[in-house]
Amino acid sequence: GAVVSQHPSRVICKSGTSVKIECRSLDFQATTMFWYRQFPKQSLMLMATSNEGSKATYEQGVEKDKFLINHASLTLSTLTVTSAHPEDSSFYICSARGGGRGETQYFGPGTRLLVL
Amino acid sequence: GNSVTQMEGPVTLSEEAFLTINCTYTATGYPSLFWYVQYPGEGLQLLLKATKADDKGSNKGFEATYRKETTSFHLEKGSVQVSDSAVYFCALSSAAGNKLTFGGGTRVLVKP
């Protein structure tokens, strides 16, 4: 149990375009989802926390207009990177918590974004 | 604020060797402690956790004990395999908001 999926696993896009990444909890209802960014050989940086049905809470330094997060249901959260630039290239990982599984966060497999 | 410090890698071992990855933390209150593992090209998987002092988390031959007196949560495995090659992250979750704070990660390479 506690499976979290992400789609797509890899995406390449041109500079200036927008990219949407989906995060789904497959076998539990996620009241809270988290979005992280990971640079090569570095640790995870929390970008934002989203609770179902409410606006996301962004960490300091993360542009909310650039990284749009929607958590419209208990099993789906989306991250849209708007007007992507090469410096947005990174590994984006989501995690989910809830459904009676306590405080443990369960992570998705990640999405590698490359902006050309 | 909260912080997690873990030993820098890479750690290179031979198969069947003993593995220790040190992790210490700073936190207010009584955090929960976690070890996550990340295999190449994948997301993080929860390896084990401990929610209170003196708890021992264990999974797949790995163990870690929550030591409040030394604010540590060192990861150990008695006999590693090539398949244990990965990056290991120590993390804590405080009561406020349950956000995870990660250490920098330790890359482990096990050679046959």
How would you characterize the largest beta sheet of chain B?
Answer: 6 strands, mixed
Task: Tell me roughly what share of residues is in helical segments of chain A.
Answer: under 10%
- Overall 3D form of chain B: globular
Q: What gross morphology of chain A would you assign?
A: globular
Number of strands of chain B: 12
Distance between the termini of chain B: 41 Å
Keywords:
heterodimer, A: 116 residues, mainly beta, 7-stranded mixed sheet, 4-stranded antiparallel sheet, B: 112 residues, 6-stranded mixed sheet, globular
Description:
- The complex is a heterodimer of chains A (116) and B (112).
- Chain A is mostly beta strands.
- In chain A, 0% of the residues lie in helices and 52% in strands.
- Chain A has no helices and eleven strands.
- Chain A has strands at residues 4-7, 10-13, 19-25, 32-38, 44-51, 57-58, 67-73, 76-81, 90-97, 106-107, 111-115.
- In chain A, strands 2, 4, 5, 6, 9, 10 and 11 form a seven-stranded mixed sheet that branches. In chain A, strands 1-3-8-7 form a four-stranded antiparallel sheet, with no helix packed on it.
- Chain A is globular, with a radius of gyration of 13 Å.
- With 112 residues, chain B is mainly beta.
- Chain B has no helices and twelve strands.
- In chain B, strand 10 and strand 11 (100-102) form a beta hairpin.
- Chain B is globular, with a radius of gyration of 13 Å.
- The N and C termini of chain B lie far apart (41 Å).
- The A-B interface holds A 4, 6, 32, 34, 41-44, 46, 49, 93, 95, 97, 103-110, 112 and B 32, 34, 36, 41-46, 49, 89, 93, 97-100, 102-105, 107.
